[in-house]
Design a protein that fits this description.
The chain is of the alpha+beta class. Helices cover about 35% and strands about 25% of the residues. The chain has 15 helices and 20 strands. Helix 4 (about 90-95) runs antiparallel to helix 5 (about 105-115). About 50% of the residues are buried.
């Protein structure tokens, strides 16, 4: 086991990793920008190193500063969390080249899955269905028009190197395709440094289903069930459930076996999530995330496993300590992402927390680095908390979630708590009949 791990992240995920390390007897090193000097993960870590000014490009995306911090503190391994450098293949390679262990997949798998076109080709080559799309990047309006005409409108233009809901544009009218292609390529170049885009058929009523997989260096691969991430706004997840109310046991087994077979054939290691669209009883692969997911707690609550602990153990070379038939799915869990945003306009709302009271009780978990007096900085992602609730049934989970949201107090800034309180009382959410397009319409009905 490692003696010291550097956490190359901030906020609630840095705190989450710190807690898992301490429960394994591992000392932690927190890195932070000057804006995060008073952050909770910095306060609790065994050591901390300031790696730069507030802007992420000068701190949390500064690979050389992070590696220097690992060197001077004597860390043996680096956990990247999610976001920032977590899916940067060059950073993972640099970590290994400098003699540290990267707590995550091999650089070649990060690189493969980070390019959405390459990922589609690799997964399709393993016999897994993908959403009908172009076989490669499209830059010519004529070629785009030819593909769109063949599959029918609407179509979705996607950045090959995209993520986080950026670099995506739906085109419903043939007359808008050329301009949509131009705009998406420009956004892709600006956001990801890569203007390559491809085009997919836009499905009309899919669910967004992802399956959590663990793989070790000994060839063992297990899945931990699926998460339903269909409640999205601007292609960004808002609420996640485990298990999905839209799948039956047979479909769950089919999806899990498909994911495990694929990652075994690829020789993948550590945690990974394969994401699918599910429509009319069929799964279509869309992308893979080669890191821990924001929504991993709902899987932990249902499976009774600590995914960060398992990531760390796998990185030491240890085998997964259980077989697939020993994974049990108990009850239901739902996660609400709570952002520092105006609940109607969704404008970011940084500022000082003057009152903070998280909910509690049986089956209630809050992953957050907030505390009374903390000042939410304006430089980073607006998510400030995750409320995760577990129940023996989905209905019990919903009632507990409703109660927990009503108890949650975050004062001094605007948050999306009011949106979640509305959402959990909506008939479509209660019935579990929503799809990936539903939340946008629900938000539009506000007021």
């Amino acid at each position: 086991m490692f003696e010291k791990v550097l956490i190359a992240n901030r906020g609630e995920i840095a705190l989450r990793i710190h807690r898992a390390c301490h429960e394994l007897g591992i000392a932690t090193v927190a890195v932070h920008s000057t804006a995060d000097a008073d952050a909770m993960h910095v306060r609790l870590a065994d050591e901390s190193v300031c790696i730069g000014p507030p802007l992420a490009r000068d701190s949390y995306l500064n690979a050389h500063a992070i590696l220097s911090a690992a060197t001077i503190t004597g860390a043996e391994a680096i956990h990247p969390g999610y976001g920032f450098l977590s899916e940067n293949a060059d950073f993972a390679a640099m970590v290994e080249e400098h003699g540290f262990v990267f707590i995550g997949p091999a650089p070649e798998h990060i690189r493969m899955m980070g390019d959405k076109i390459m990922a589609r080709r690799a997964i399709a080559g393993l016999g897994i269905p993908v959403v009908p799309g172009t076989g490669g990047p499209v830059s010519d309006a004529g070629a785009a028009q030819q593909f769109a005409d063949s599959v029918g409108y609407p179509v979705l233009i996607k950045a090959a190197g995209g993520g986080g809901g950026r670099g995506m544009k739906v085109v419903a009218d043939p007359g808008d395709l050329a301009e949509g292609l131009k705009l998406t390529r420009a956004e892709a170049a600006s956001s990801f440094g890569n203007d390559a885009v491809y085009i997919e058929k836009y499905l009309s009523h899919p669910r967004h289903i992802e399956v959590q997989v663990l793989a070790d260096v000994h060839g063992n691969v297990v899945h931990l069930g699926e998460r339903d991430c269909s409640l999205q706004r601007s292609h960004q997840k808002v609420v996640e459930e485990c298990l999905s109310p839209s799948l039956n046991a047979g479909q769950r087994d089919e999806l899990g076996a498909m994911a495990c077979k694929a990652l075994a054939q690829l020789g993948y290691r550590n945690a990974g999530t394969l994401e699918f669209l599910f429509e009319d009883g069929r799964f279509y692969f869309i992308e893979m995330n080669t890191r821990l997911q924001v929504e991993h707690p709902v899987t932990e609550m249902v499976c009774g496993l600590d995914l960060v602990r398992e990531q760390i153990r796998i990185a030491t070379g240890a085998p997964i300590p259980f077989r697939q038939d020993q994974v049990n799915f108990n009850g239901h869990a739902i996660e609400c992402r709570i952002n520092a945003e105006d609940p109607q306009t969704f404008r970011p709302s940084p500022g000082r927390i003057n009152e903070y009271h998280p909910p509690g009780g049986l089956g209630v978990r809050v992953d957050s680095a907030l505390y009374s007096g903390y000042r939410v900085p304006p430089y980073y992602d607006s998510m400030v908390a995750k409320l995760i609730v577990h129940g023996t049934t989905r209905n019990e989970c919903l009632m507990r979630l409703r109660r927990s949201l009503d108890e949650y107090v975050i004062g001094g800034i605007e948050t999306t708590l009011p949106l979640h309180r509305r959402l959990v009382r909506a008939a479509e959410f209660i019935d579990g009949t929503y799809d990936v397009h539903w939340l946008e319409k629900f938000v539009g009905r506000a007021g």
